[in-house]
Design goal:
Blueprint (H helix, E strand, L loop, with lengths): L6 E2 L19 E5 L3 H12 L3 E6 L10 E5 L5 E5 L5 E2 L3 H7 L9 E3 L5 E2 L5 E2 L10 H9 L5 H6 L2 H7 L4 H8 L4 H8 L3 H13 L10 H13 L7 E4 L3 H15 L3 E4 L3 E7 L2 E6 L4 E4 L1 E4 L3 H9 L7 H9 L6 E8 L10 E4 L7 E4 L5 H10 L2 E7 L8 H15 L8 E9 L23 E3 L12 H19 L8 E2 L7 H4 L12
Parallel strand pairs: 2-3, 2-15, 3-11, 8-17, 15-21
Antiparallel strand pairs: 1-22, 4-5, 6-10, 7-10, 8-9, 12-13, 13-14, 16-19, 16-20, 17-18, 18-19
Helix pairs in contact: 1-15, 2-15, 6-9, 7-9
Length: 514
């Protein structure tokens, strides 16, 4: 793997120089939620000498990236997950966190391509593009079968510039009030190019275009494509998350004194003197100097509703305003025969019914590869994002199977030996107009912090990187409060390369270009 070209994040309100790395006194911390955000916070705090307790309602760690053991009809056990996760090479903070348990990141297998399949045999690829922003866009246009330079020149130049001029405050001010659909309609890309290059992109964040903020779309385009020099091809974990990440991470944290209470739901949080008490659903409680809430939006809303004295009215209103997007489906199939040898481990899709990607687990994961070798078969996982809420399981499966057979005809003759189907609705929505109301890490309640992939961060992040970054930001705020030095954080280019020109008057309060 190449060396990352990351930038250090410098807080606009830095702590005094010379603070100790280790907390100068004992601090009790309760982390509510054992997912990426909560465990990232727990890692930094446990390393700095805090007495950390992690409360997790499930009996496994990882949250929406977790894995748990199930048993096939054959009696074989396997680790089930909520779907494939891509570790992009500009997930600098995720990777720095994972190096605690795997210094060389040997668990990550590089994929050679990020192919996209569309209707009528359309194909796009993100492999082999230049690393330099703008040059990568030029190269993509040059080789795209759906977009020419003449087409690109006809694109609305003002909106086209906005894509390359991401600025945290100016982009939100000018584009958060409109939907990604309206933005892309006005942008004027040819229909096929839009479908292959943008529709698939918006869906990858689980939000349908008409319910997705244009400002968030611009942020995502900057973060994944125009603001980093690592490329958009990614790595995958070479085994189940449970064996490769969560079990080693738990051992590492327990070695730092961290305590885990799995199967424990937090019922409420309230001040008790200068501390906070987390009350458990089973009647127990945890008293802490500080609390980090690393919860999904629905779980956070339930907890805040049951904690009437927590925060202030404006903050509580911002929590109530958060929402989840449409459901997503994960369908894993154990087939009795292999797929064609030319198939790649992963393909994204667009315009092909509900299908959003196909992952061939036996091509990158050790447990699945061993099963396929024993049975002469394959393990195929199908994903559908932003599923219409009125669709039931049978209709979703019918649609996904139809698209699989059309793309990979050899699977139509296969017998499905085992299957697991998950339909979940707990991914955050990024609706137009909600940007200014998205909560930051710091809350008005002393000692209480938020973390998660819906939390607003001071530099560009998304998905797993946003979850881990927010957890470290929460830990840093806590360290600052108790007199210890912050953990380093890393970012892609904080602003788009055209931002200084397009929004040159923004910081003075003048109206920038629309």
């Amino acid at each position: 793997m190449t060396s990352p070209r990351r930038k250090p994040y410098h807080s606009p309100d830095p702590a005094p120089a010379g603070l100790p790395r280790i907390l100068p006194r004992k601090v009790d911390v309760a982390i509510v939620g054992g997912g990426l955000a909560g465990l990232a916070a727990a890692t930094v705090l446990a390393e700095r000498g805090a007495a950390v307790t992690v409360l997790e309602r499930e009996n496994f760690l990882g949250g929406r990236a977790g894995a748990w053991t199930e048993t096939l009809e054959s009696g074989e056990t396997f680790e089930m997950e909520r779907g494939f996760h891509a570790f992009f090479r500009h997930y600098y903070n995720v990777r720095a966190w994972l190096r605690r348990i795997d210094p060389d990141l040997a668990m990550l297998t590089p994929l050679e391509d990020y192919p996209l399949f569309g209707p009528d045999g359309l194909r796009e690829s993100f492999s082999g593009l230049p690393r330099t922003p703008v040059l990568n866009l030029i190269a993509l246009i040059k080789r795209s079968p759906t977009l020419s330079f003449r087409d690109a020149l006809r694109v609305d130049d003002t909106l086209g510039q906005a894509m390359m001029a991401y600025d945290p405050s100016a982009t939100e001010e000018h584009y958060d009030h409109i939907s990604a659909k309206d933005f892309l309609d006005r942008l004027g890309f040819p229909p096929k190019a839009r479908q292959m290059l943008f529709d698939v992109f918006a869906h990858s964040f689980f939000n349908p275009e008409e319910e997705f903020s244009a400002a968030e779309l611009i942020l995502m385009m900057h973060f994944y494509f125009l603001g980093n020099r690592e490329g958009i091809v990614f790595d995958v974990v070479d085994g189940p998350f449970s064996t490769k990440i969560w079990q080693p991470m738990r051992r590492y944290l327990e070695g730092k004194g961290c305590r885990f209470q799995l199967g424990t739901s937090a019922l409420s949080v309230g001040a008790e003197g200068e501390q906070l008490r987390v009350r458990h659903a089973d009647g127990g409680s945890t008293l802490a100097d500080s609390v980090v809430l690393g919860l999904t939006v629905p779980a956070l809303q339930d907890l805040v509703e049951r904690s009437p004295s927590l925060g202030d009215a404006a903050w509580r209103a911002s929590i109530r305003r958060q929402s989840v997007t449409r459901p997503f489906a994960v369908w894993r199939l154990w087939l009795d025969r292999p797929v064609a040898p030319e198939r790649t481990p992963f393909v994204g899709t667009t315009g092909l019914g509900l299908l959003d990607n196909i992952s061939l687990y036996h091509l990158f994961e050790d447990e699945s590869r061993e099963w396929a070798e024993r049975h002469g078969g394959s393990i195929v996982e199908l994903h559908a994002y932003a599923v219409p809420e009125e669709m039931d399981e049978a209709a979703i499966k019918e649609d996904l199977l139809k698209q699989l057979y059309a793309l990979y005809p050899e699977t139509e003759a296969a017998t499905i030996l085992e299957e697991r189907f998950l339909l979940r609705q707990d991914c955050p929505a990024f609706r137009p107009g909600d940007g200014p109301h998205r909560p930051p890490v710091v809350t008005p309640e002393p000692g209480l912090y938020l973390a998660g992939d819906f939390v607003k961060t001071p530099f560009p992040t998304a998905l797993m990187e946003r979850a881990v970054t927010s957890g470290i930001l929460a830990a840093n705020e806590l360290l600052r409060r108790h007199g210890a030095a912050a953990e380093p954080l890393w970012t892609v280019r904080p602003r788009g390369f055209l931002a200084r020109w397009i929004y040159r008057d923004h910081r003075e309060g003048a109206r920038a270009r629309p």
